[in-house]
Amino acid sequence: MIVVDTFAGVREHGDGVVGLVPTMGYLHEGHVSVIAAAMERTDTVVVSLFVNPLQFDGITDLKTYPADLERDASIAAEAGAHILFAPSVDEMYPEPQLTIVHVDEVGAAMEGERRPGHFDGVATVVAKLFSGIRPDVAFFGRKDAQQLAVVRTLARQLSMPVEVVGLPTVRESDGVALGSRNTRLDQAARKSARKLSESLLVAADQFVAGERLAGPLTATVREILGQDTSIAVDYVELADAISAMIVDLIKGEVFLAVAARIGGVRLIDNVFLDDRTGLADTGSMLTHNSILYESKSCS
Ligand code: PAF
User: Fold this and answer.
1) Helix (H, G, I), strand (E, B), or coil: what is residue 294?
2) Ligand 1 proximal residues by C-beta, below 6 Å
3) Is 288 a catalytic residue?
4) 30, 67, 164, 171: which has the fewest C-beta neighbours closer than 10 Å?
5) Whole-number pLDDT of residue 298
6) pLDDT value at position 295?
7) For residue 152, with 0-12 CB atoms within 10 Å meaning exposed, 13-18 middle and 19 or more buried, which class applies?
8) For the CA atoms of the chain, what is the radius of gyration?
C-alpha cells in the first residue's frame, strides 16, 4: 500500500476499476469490512482519510476526534487497500470553500435537523473526493443511513459517473454499532449504549413478524430506551432508504433510525427493513474485542 497526500498522486497510481472507501480515520472492523467489499469489486482500492472540518458542528467534537495515521495506515494495509489518501486540510481546501454542495430534503430531517450544516459539509467533501479521485465505485457504511442517501442523491443529480454502494453495519460483540465515538463511552454509558441496538433488534423482529406501521415500531424503540434514564433520545424515526423522507408506512426499503446522547456521547444506529423481501438488515456482530480498543499500531 502506498500513502499519498495529493489527488494527483491517487490518480497516478489508480489502475483498472477504482474503488473508493471514504473515511475520517480511526479505522475499525466496520471500515475493514467495507474495504473487503471494495477489494472484491474493484482493482485499485483507495481508502481516503480526512477529518473534514466542514462537517463538524462544534470545534470540541472536531478537536476530540481521534486521529492516528500510523495506526490507520497499518489497518488499511492489512485489510488489503492499495492506496491510502491522507490529504492535508490545504490539499482539500486550498482556498476558502465558496462552493458548497447542498442536498435539499434528503438531508433535511433527523441528522440534518439536529446538526445544521453537517450534510453540506459531508456532501461537499464527498463531491471533492469523487471529482478529485474519479472512482468507479464508492463504498459507504449503512450505519450512516441518511448520509448514504445524501451521497447517492448528489452522485446521481450531479451526473457523477460513480456507483455508490452501501454496506451493512458491523457491531461490537455486545451489539453496539462500531464507531470511533464508542471509545469515549465510560463503563456505565457503554452498558446503556447496548439498549440502542437491543431496541432496534426487537423492532426488526416485529417487522419480520408483519408490522408495517411506523408508530408501533418507533414506540417499541422508545419504550426500551425509556427504561434507562441515562439515555437522552434525540429522535426515533422510520425513513425511506432512498429519499430519507420520514414515512408512516413501510413500502420498499426503509431504515428505522435512532440517535441518542449517552454519557455526553452522541450515538446513532439503525436497521434496514425491506418490505419487498420481508427481511431486516441488522448488520453483523463481532465475536472478539474490536481493534478500536487496541493501543497504537496494529501490524
Ligand atoms: O462517514 C464518514 O466517515 C464521513 O462522513 C465521510 C463520508 C468520510 C465524509 O467526510
Assistant:
1) coil
2) 22-24, 52, 55, 122, 125-126, 144, 147
3) no
4) 67
5) 36
6) 65
7) buried
8) 19
Residues 6+ apart with CB under 8 A from 162: 20, 130, 134, 135, 136, 137, 138, 155
In this structure, are residues 271 and 145 in contact, taking their beta carbons and an 8 Å threshold? Answer: no
Q: Which three cell numbers, joined as nine digits, stand for 89?
A: 486540510
Q: Which three cell numbers stand for residue 256?
A: 428505522
Q: Which three cell numbers stand for residue 138?
A: 464508492
CB 188 within 8 A of CB 262: no
Q: Give the chain's domains with CATH numbers.
A: 2-167 (3.40.50.620), 180-294 (3.30.1300.10)
- Beta carbons within 10 angstroms of residue 131's beta carbon: 12
pTM for the complete prediction?
0.96
**Cα distance between residue 239 and residue 143, in whole Å:** 14
Contact 238, 254 (CB under 8 A): yes
Q: Which of 118, 122, 128 to mutate to test the pocket of ligand 1 (most atoms within 8 A of CB)?
A: 122
- Residue ranges for the chain with pLDDT beneath 50: 296-299
> Which is it for the CA torsion 35, 38, 42, 48, positive or negative?
negative
